[in-house]
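Let us practice reading a record.
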Amino acid sequence: MANLFPIFLNLNGKNCLIIGGGQVAKRKAEDLLECGADIRIVSPEIDDQIKAWAHKGIITWLNREFEPGDLQDIFMAFVATDNSRINREVVELCRKQGILVNAVDDPPNCDFYVPAVIRRNSLILAISTEGKSPLFARKLRRELEEIITSEYGEFVDILGEQREYLKENVPDANTRRKIFNALVYSDVLDLLRAGEKEKARERIKQCMCSWLD
């Protein structure tokens, strides 16, 4: 098997289909909701949480078995049923139509695998074993969650804010690069982790002013 190509997709407003309505389908829906996807779930039976989302209009629920027409205008599909025949049918149809498909716990029938994810605001770390051991990927995620704390995400957001400011106010690319280097390799993150937010703000100003003055 060739190596996987790691990628982060923008699913905001994209039509995503989930075939199945159990716990696995609920977890997939939760992940997709975080990404702003438009979700359709096809299943005659669904988890209570999925039913609540459907009643609130957060997702669309089709209360029946899968039909080929359900794939119209779909960008990405997840197959999460315990019926192998339906799973194979959906995968085959998706591949004929060029739709990305993931058959849960069936690596040969996946165009992509869902990694174990750590989210810290705009900082996202994804861990994949190429479908060989999702359990080990989750173990690594738990270990890294203790290291990559919320302050890392806060720092990334700060860097993003400064990046926008510099793009608008510092025309010279070399100067911008030097300022970014000063910020990234400063002790701002250490100060945030220590709870010294005021000192962190002062350090950011120092890094900016050292090149802008």
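A brief commentary: The first strand starts at residue 15 and ends at 19.
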